[in-house]
Design brief:
This protein has 6 helices and 10 strands; from the N terminus they run βααααβββββααββββ. The chain folds into 2 domains: about 120 residues, Beta-lactamase Inhibitory Protein, Chain:B, domain 1 (2-Layer Sandwich), CATH 3.30.1450; about 70 residues, Beta-lactamase Inhibitory Protein, Chain:B, domain 1.
């Protein structure tokens, strides 16, 4: 899939919602293309140990595609590519993903072979609490405001929530850490909060009354 984008600051417009879209695309793509892509060192239970939180944390914005492949132990599977014109120059943006299991994976976005954003989904991480507590309410949702830290949100929610996605994004000369958390409520309701550098930047709710 290739799209052409008119002039604009492509990197500055990226957000974790974009990477979430790439994750969905990757999951669909890999389910349709099962068995394709570069081979890895899979264990007997079908898990590639190189696609881990430890190796994800080793990936640094600015690395080349080849350096990322060296860390993850194999080439990635190309999900999509985009060509953007910025300041009179045509830049190629390419999304790759690396599978750990059918649902666990690492996503990377490269701009002219330079890593500018990364995210992971479904990887084992002891620091992440995958809470099943049903604590989300409308009152708590309305108490959340932009700029709050993750710790302040936890104090309001009464639970650490479940981190669904985490990643890093290059914005200008800075690297922004992003994370998306979900708190569940009764009757399949939920609160979803996005953080950038540990500060709340957006929130959504589903089914709260």
């Amino acid at each position: 899939m290739k799209r052409y984008i008119k002039k604009g600051n492509f990197r500055g417009q990226l957000s974790i919602s974009v990477m979430m879209g790439v994750i969905v695309l990757s999951l669909v793509f890999t389910s349709c293309k099962k068995g394709t892509g570069s081979s890895g060192n899979y264990s007997s239970d079908g898990i590639d140990p190189n696609i881990s939180v430890e190796n994800f944390n080793k990936l640094q914005v600015g690395m080349s595609y080849e350096e990322v492949c060296d860390i993850l132990g194999k080439e990635g599977i190309k999900s999509s590519s985009e060509t953007a014109e910025m300041m009179g120059e045509v830049v190629e943006h390419t999304y790759y993903h690396w599978k750990r299991t059918e649902t666990g994976l690492i996503n990377c976005l490269f701009s002219d072979n330079k890593l500018v954003a990364k995210s992971q989904f479904g990887l084992d991480d002891e620091e992440v609490n995958t809470s099943e507590e049903k604590v989300a309410t409308l009152d708590k949702y309305e108490s959340l405001s932009e700029g709050m830290t993750y710790e302040e949100v936890v104090n309001i929610m009464g639970d650490r929530g479940s981190r669904v996605v985490s990643g890093e994004l290059e914005v200008g000369s800075n690297t922004v850490e992003q994370a998306l958390y979900v708190w569940k409520g009764e009757n399949f309701s939920s609160i979803t909060v996005t953080f950038e550098d540990n500060r709340l930047t957006s929130k959504t709710q589903q089914g709260l009354r």
